Amino acid sequence: MFGLAKGLKYTLKNLTRQKVTYDYPNDALLLPDRFRGIQKFYPEKCIVCNQCSNICPTDCITLTGKKHPDPSKKGKIIDTYDINFEICILCDLCTEVCPTEAIIMTNNFELAEYSRDMFYKNLEWLDENDTNIREENKV
């Protein structure tokens, strides 16, 4: 009986406290400045150096390029850029090593899907990922 009264006292005391949960879909979460979310990719900046795919610890980045069709221009142009977010750990190494800053991290973290096939994101999707770009990366 004493345990029941003690538990009831604790419950009634905590009913008047301020709530610490968020109304998530309706209220935006305050994220720290250095939060690492989904990447945004700028294909026009990419020089196909493969440093991002080489440094990736989970090998989730696939990058291919081809020679520039104009013989007077040197270098490569990007052909495909895919990320498998099923195994990506959002470690930020790909953005740190990119010499042209073609890859940046955003504050977007919402990737919930019903199918695992939807976690494979391609060049077009990553280029259009403009939601929640961090302040230091806005151009």
From TrEMBL:
Chain ranges of the 4Fe-4S ferredoxin-type domain: 37-66, 79-108
GO cellular component, one term: membrane
One Gene Ontology molecular-function label: NADH dehydrogenase activity
Recorded superkingdom: Bacteria
Cofactor requirements of the protein: [4Fe-4S] cluster
InterPro entries from the UniProt entry: 4Fe4S_Fe-S-bd (IPR017896), 4Fe4S_Fe_S_CS (IPR017900), NADH_quinone_OxRdtase_chainI (IPR010226)
Keywords: 4Fe-4S, Iron, Iron-sulfur, Metal-binding, Oxidoreductase, Translocase
Any one GO biological process: aerobic respiration
Family: Belongs to the complex I 23 kDa subunit family.
Protein name from the UniProt record: NADH-quinone oxidoreductase subunit NuoI
Provenance organism: Peribacillus faecalis
